[in-house]
Amino acid sequence: MRVNILALFILLATTLLISCSKGGESSPNYTYTYKLAGPAATVVQVQYTPTMTDPNMTEVPDDLEYEEQVTPPWEKTVTLHKNIAGAGFSASVSNGVPGAKYTISILSKDGNVLKTGDFTLDEYGDGALLLNYYRN
Fold first, then answer.
1. DSSP type of residue 52
2. If DSSP codes are grouped into helix, strand and coil, which group holds residue 57?
3. What is the mean pLDDT of each run of 10 residues along the chain (136 residues)?
4. How far apart are CA 11 and CA 134, in angstroms?
5. pTM of this prediction?
6. Are 33 and 111 in contact (CB under 8 A)?
7. 45 CB contacts (<8 Å, ≥6 apart)?
8. How many CA within 13 A on the CB side of residue 50?
């Protein structure tokens, strides 16, 4: 299951680097907050689009952290260059408590929910969810 989530995240990171700027237009960077809620007893693997503010960046560099093992509640705020069309956030649990429920969200700079979703761990204590948010 982790291989599938990692493959999805790599695909997401690649597609997010599509430029959506208009020549010569000056617009601000975008700030997002990733949020995880759920039982604190379990370690959750999270992956997210990291802070990327270099307008010449074409892929996620190896030295940027975008994967962590955390315990809920957890949140992380990142800043993305205007050329990055959106943000991705995933969470996965292995060997957790069957039936435990988790919520992940992508929030705007003002704290408005842009994308949210819930997942419940299966009978083996496994579960995952991937969210993608694309700006218009």
1. B
2. coil
3. 49 43 55 96 93 79 86 96 91 96 97 97 97 92
4. 14
5. 0.78
6. yes
7. 2, 5, 67, 68, 69, 91, 92, 93, 94
8. 14
